[in-house]
User: What shape does this take?
Amino acid sequence: REARGKMRAKSLRKEGLVPGGYYDKEGANLPLTLGYGELHAAYTRAQNQVIYLEIKGGEQSQKNKPVLIWDIQFHPVKGLIQHVDLIGVDLAEEVRIEVPVEIVGTSQGVEKGGMLDVYRDTVPVSCLPTSIPEKIEVDVSEVDIGDSLHLSEVSLPEGVTMQDTTEDLGIVGVVLPRGASEAEEEESEEEPTEE
Assistant: This one.
């Protein structure tokens, strides 16, 4: 894509195209124009998986370039893709990426009347581009009221390691509903004291 600017981007969207950019660690910075249908299909099928880009035009023409969708912007009302940034990857080198969390199981605390509080909807991992999991399952079955489940307690697929485990951030916890905790405090205040 040679022409840039807001007006050109708006014109491209009317034509069923999406403006975007391609970057890699070698310093490449290429403005791109992508077909909406192909991009939407790729994003729906493989949001955080390797896809292969064919760059047409000029000296930068390449086929089967492995890339990740690094950033994607949507229209706030219509939900249509407005812009996308793709990053080139080396299939033999690990990448650092956020992978979506999927909560599985019903926690003990929730069964006792607690509420599940999700602190993070993604977790930071490192792995080869071809080993990026679509999601990380977080089993909350053993989480009781007042307990939290942390990054270090999550099971990961082979070849995938957790980033930032030094802080061991919480992912989910179970708390009492606000009204219930206030009611308990009031009851404890009203309990008669022995003389």
